[in-house]
Amino acid sequence: MSVELDEKLVDQIVGQIKTQDDLADLSRQLLKAAVERVMAAELEDHLGYSKHSPEGHNTGNSRNGHSKKTIKGDFGEVDIQAPRDRNGEFSPQLIAKGKTRINKLDQQILALYARGMTTRDIADALHEMYGADVSHSLIGTVTDAVHEEVQTWQNRPLESLYPILYLDGMVVKVHQDKRVVKKTVYVALGVTTEGHKELLGLWIAETESSKFWLSVLTELQNRGVEDIFIACVDGLTGFPEAITTVFPKAQVQLCIVHQVRNSLKSAIPDN
């Protein structure tokens, strides 16, 4: 896998989900994508110029491909492509040379995707991962890279029809302004016409409300969803009306959508 990630990488990962068990692999897929993107940003900060920049001809050092590395931790094992420089001076800070065991890194990486998806939140998460001794320029470079990846995934085009759409709000604990607070993660999980499950998006808000769900559904429509057959939701007041406002032909079924929580509990850390 190339460090210069294709802008549809995460979309392709989600598109491979065919069973509920496949969702458990989502964290490892996102981990690989994010770690490689972060290490590429680290190398760019070390060299002092972006890839293909003319400035690189006069620095005396340059990129020199990648080497395979297997990282291990609570998430199992993940193979990544670690970038190298020609002079051998580059020493990654996220995963140091000679180090392979990383505990809790999957939760920290996923925090970059799930904790509000704002530049400030990503910077806070990176600060926790790296420590206080890391330069602001490195944090900024990595933040920009990860934020771009998040935005690409969250704004990607969707299918025109999803026969079944699960909508659920999950309360999680997140770090904000040096405090632990509770927020609601809005989850939209669709079933495609081929029977595959696809995570359509994640949104963060203070609490769950039908008004916010209306904005989520409108966003899904703007990203290409034209119709859904069945929407499975809980008993939140005003929720059915929000759905039929955007998708008037949809049948709303009130049910316990705990299966969404169980499917995604490995993809959204409670930290």
Features:
disordered C terminus, 271 residues, five-stranded mixed sheet, Nucleotidyltransferase, domain 5, 2 domains, two-stranded antiparallel sheet, alpha/beta
Structure description:
- 35% of the residues are buried.
- Helix 2 packs across helix 3, helix 4 packs across helix 5 and helix 6 packs parallel to helix 7.
- The chain folds into 2 domains: 146 residues, no CATH class; 104 residues, Ribonuclease H-like superfamily/Ribonuclease H (Nucleotidyltransferase, domain 5), CATH 3.30.420.10.
- The two termini are 29 Å apart.
- It is of the alpha/beta class and 271 residues long.
Number of domains: 2
Helical content stands at 25-40%
**Major β-sheet annotation:** 5 strands, mixed
C-alpha-based Rg, rounded: 20 Å
Helix-and-strand structural type: alpha/beta
Tell me the β content.
25-35%
Helix segment tally = 8
Regions with little confidence, pLDDT below 50 for 5+ residues: 1-7, 263-271
Spatial ordering of strands, largest sheet: 5-4-3-6-7
- The pLDDT mean sits at 75
H/E order of the elements?
A: HHEEHHHEEEHEHEH
What is the terminal-to-terminal distance? 29 Å
Shape: elongated
**What's the quaternary structure here?**
single chain
For the secondary structure, the number of strands is 7
Structure, briefly:
This protein has two domains: 9-154, no CATH class; 161-264, Nucleotidyltransferase, domain 5 (2-Layer Sandwich).
List the helices and strands and how they pair.
Layout: H1 9-15, H2 26-47, E1 63-73, E2 76-85, H3 105-114, H4 119-130, H5 136-154, E3 161-176, E4 179-191, E5 197-205, H6 210-222, E6 227-233, H7 239-246, E7 251-254, H8 258-264
Helix pairs in contact: 1-2, 2-3, 2-5, 3-4, 4-5, 6-7
